[in-house]
């Protein structure tokens, strides 16, 4: 059980409420401090149980903006529900190693997509500041939570994407060309039989 102290005033709460208003997120979310955590995270499946937890440490205003944008993105997309569904899939197909791999990749993709939304339109200096924040609060999120920073094995990939954003157009065109060839090849096989 994680002990937490609710934040009822201060700049943290103001910035958090501003981020919630920015994205028009209307469900109630508590903001709390916890001494037991090393990374910010959000949890709670239902409206009345949603909470965003911060470790007790001093954050700059820019870091708080990054943290809150990331966590509100998780809340807005209901990523905690997705993690519960992934756990159900894992429990149902525990014997299949491909399901284990798919669940791990899906969890990583949840974090990567939030990173992309946080960094959308930001310059190199802001990206580097976000990468430093990820490094400074790297840790593992327990249970059905969404956290700002994941464990070490995914950190390298996330940091690479944060500092040097990928160009997607060539990959997308390649995928479209391969899909087109597969569909056309399948059609030729069907008509030749």
For the structure shown, list the relevant keywords.
193 residues, alpha+beta, five-stranded mixed β-sheet, 7 helices
What does this structure look like?
By secondary structure, the protein is of the alpha+beta class. It has one domain. It has 7 helices and 5 strands. A 5-stranded mixed sheet has the order 1-2-4-3-5. A hairpin with a 7-residue loop joins strand 3 (41-43) and strand 4. It is globular and about 75 Å long.
Record the SSE blueprint:
Blueprint: E1 5-6, H1 11-22, E2 30-34, E3 41-43, E4 51-55, H2 61-77, H3 79-92, H4 97-119, H5 124-136, E5 145-147, H6 152-163, H7 169-192
Helix pairs in contact: 1-2, 2-4, 3-4, 4-6, 5-6
- Low-confidence stretches are none
| Helix-strand sequence | EHEEEHHHHEHH
Structural class: alpha+beta
Fraction of residues in β-strands: 5-15%
Question: Distance N terminus to C terminus?
Answer: 64 Å
């Amino acid at each position: 059980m994680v002990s937490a102290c609710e934040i009822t005033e201060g700049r943290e709460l103001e910035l958090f409420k501003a981020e919630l208003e920015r994205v028009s997120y209307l469900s109630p979310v508590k903001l709390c401090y916890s001494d037991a955590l090393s990374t910010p995270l959000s949890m709670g499946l239902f409206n009345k149980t949603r909470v965003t937890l911060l470790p007790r440490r001093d954050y700059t205003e820019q870091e708080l903006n990054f943290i809150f944008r990331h966590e509100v993105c998780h809340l807005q997309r209901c990523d905690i529900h997705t993690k519960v569904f992934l756990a159900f899939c894992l429990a149902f197909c525990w014997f299949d190693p491909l399901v284990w791999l798919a669940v791990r990749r899906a969890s990583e993709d949840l974090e990567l997509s939030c990173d992309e939304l946080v960094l959308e339109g930001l310059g190199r200096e802001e990206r580097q500041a976000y990468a430093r924040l990820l490094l400074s609060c790297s840790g593992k999120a327990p249970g059905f939570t969404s956290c700002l920073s994941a464990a070490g094995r995914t950190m390298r990939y996330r940091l690479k994407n944060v500092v040097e954003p990928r160009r997607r157009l060539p990959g997308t065109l390649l995928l479209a060309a391969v899909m087109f060839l597969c569909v056309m090849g399948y059609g030729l096989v069907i008509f030749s039989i």
